[in-house]
Amino acid sequence: MKRKFKKKKRKLKEEIKKSNHLNQKIKISNLKIKIKNKENENKEKKIKSFESENQNLKQENQKKEKENQNLKQENQKKEKDIQNLKSENEKKEKIIKQKDKEIQNIKLSFEKENQKEESKQNQNKLLKIFSNSEIVKDKEYVKKLQEWINDNDFFSKMKKGFSAKNDGFDSQNWHKAVDGKGKTLVIIKTKDNFIFGGFTQVGWTNDTSKWSEEHDGGNWGYIKDENAFIFSLRNDKGDRKPEKFTIQQGKEKYAIEHDLKDGPTFGSFDFRLKDKLQPGYSNFGNIYNLPNGITYGTNEAKSYLAGSYDEWVVDELETYFI
């Protein structure tokens, strides 16, 4: 009997133990469930919070989109206004350009009229100056000289500073009158009625520092002038018309020669007058350009200006300067 009782008692203890263990498990499980539920609650709260934030953000975005739409509409309106202003400005600029063109045309018209008037006045003055000339008696010669020299200041102030018939056929007299005068116009008429000459913007000077090349210990030398030229007004050979001959490129430093023993000399004896301004010598084409179709060194070139190569006789030499 005791044995049975002990056995039952032990069995009961085991069942109680098992029951306690099971209860413990249930407690732990319940605790875990509570924790899980708590976590879920927190998650739900977070989700609700996120949803609320998202809703707010969505509303803000909608508001921003609306603002952007309004701004876009305003910008479109402004762009349209700008386009209209641009179009108006273009129209105004077109009108301004047209007005400027009209003003420019009026100015050009006035300038042309003034130039014509000035040219006419200078021509009248030239005609008056040349009225006492023994050489320039043709109005067309005056027009040509005015056209070739193209210097209103020179024409408005120039005067006849030397005449061989009045001042003597002497190179020293010529240099005394001409040296240091700057712009100088030389016109020669031969006994055979050839009329030619030359123009220099720098003129003759005995100041050797202004010479481009010095010879014979400073007794003579060349003077540079890029704008010097020779001309022919009357040439009875072949009925040639008045013509201007510029200096050859690269030979500008030989434009004119200064030598007290010589009269006016252009180039390296393209034409030259000796000490008594007689006789003349012409090696035309050495420094200055020849007329088209004429070759340097030929008799045609040498005789072009004065009718012969050398020993041509000067009837009159006139020199004009300011």
Largest sheet: 7 strands, antiparallel
How far is the N terminus from the C terminus? Answer: 170 Å
Succession of helices and strands: HHHEHHEEEEEEEEEEHEE
Rg from alpha-carbon coordinates: 55 Å
Biased composition (Basic and acidic residues): 38-51, 60-91
Domain TLDc: 134-322
Protein name: TLDc domain-containing protein
Organism: Anaeramoeba ignava
How does this structure look, described?
It comes from Anaeramoeba ignava (Anaerobic marine amoeba). Pfam families: TLD (PF07534). The protein is an alpha+beta fold and about 325 residues long. The protein has a domain at about 160-320. The chain has helices at about 1-130, 140-150, 150-155, 165, 170-180, 300; strands at about 160-165, 185-190, 195-200, 215, 220-225, 230-235, 245, 255-260, 265, 270-275, 280, 310, 315-320. The strands form two sheets. The protein has a seven-stranded antiparallel β-sheet, with no helix packed on it. A six-stranded antiparallel β-sheet has the order 1-13-2-3-6-7, sandwiched between helices. Helix 1 (about 1-130) packs antiparallel against helix 2. The N and C termini lie far apart (about 170 Å).
